[in-house]
Design goal:
Distance between the termini: 63 Å
Number of strands: 11
Largest sheet: 6 strands, antiparallel
Strand content: 25-35%
Number of domains: 2
Helix content: 25-40%
Structural class: alpha+beta
Radius of gyration: 35 Å
Order of helices and strands: HHHHEEEEEEEEEEEH
Shape: elongated
Oligomer: single chain
């Protein structure tokens, strides 16, 4: 049996290709078989390190290992509260109302968080109308902050508005309809919100947020 070192495999393969060019097929097969057998029987690579080196590697790995703490977002807090079963201390109401806007006028409809409650999570606001036109515009404010930064949104079909970063800790949502047409319209507005009792927010949610903040600051 011919044993071929790994470093000689390339030479054997080159010789095999050269033999094939001159038609020596039998020699080619033998050389290829020898090369394959050498690769199959090659012992596995073993690495031996000293105990001192192992300790240094362990120290380096420990020094570069960090714990990632994810701050609780409103969705996480809402899910945790729901799992605790605190039904008497949370509510998820849906407010739906209709707003009449005469032709050429602007009308507003506010939604307020009830006293003693905190807004924690809100679904997108839904709007629909009995008449659609590009000259009908919609502005939505969260505590006087305009949510849609590009000016009035044209009411050309029913749609939803994602309130984004403004969807927590608000006290009032204001929906403003600008009717620039000659047609009187009726706009329906629906707002769903996750309400948490104020004392429960202070006792449960805020300490959790503060604890995570301290862990994050400790890692920085």
């Amino acid at each position: 049996m011919v044993m071929i070192p790994l470093v000689g495999v390339a030479a054997y393969l080159g010789a095999a290709l050269a033999a094939a060019r001159v038609g020596d097929l039998e020699k080619t097969v033998e050389q290829l078989n020898a090369a394959i057998e050498a690769l199959e029987q090659r012992p596995p690579l073993e690495v031996t390190i000293s105990p001192e080196a192992a300790r240094e590697i362990a120290k380096a790995m420990a020094a570069t290992t960090a714990v990632v703490v994810v701050p609780p977002d409103p969705d996480m807090l809402a899910q945790a509260i729901q799992l605790r079963g605190e039904r008497a201390r949370m509510e998820i109401p849906t407010w739906r109302s209709a707003l009449a806007v005469p032709a050429g006028t602007t009308a507003s409809l506010p939604f307020y968080v009830p006293e003693g409650w905190v807004s924690l999570k809100r679904r997108p606001i839904e709007l629909a109308s009995d008449f659609y036109d590009p000259d009908i515009g919609v502005n939505i404010y969260s505590d006087d902050t305009l949510i849609n930064p590009a000016g009035p949104m044209p009411l050309t079909t029913s749609f939803t508005v994602d309130t984004g970063e403004y969807y927590t800790q608000w006290q009032r949502i204001m929906v403003e309809i600008v009717n620039g047409t000659v047609t009187d319209i009726m706009v329906s507005i629906q707002v769903s919100v996750f309400l948490l009792e104020s004392s429960y927010f202070e006792d449960f949610a805020r300490p959790l947020i503060d604890a995570v903040q301290k862990k994050v600051m400790a890692l920085l």
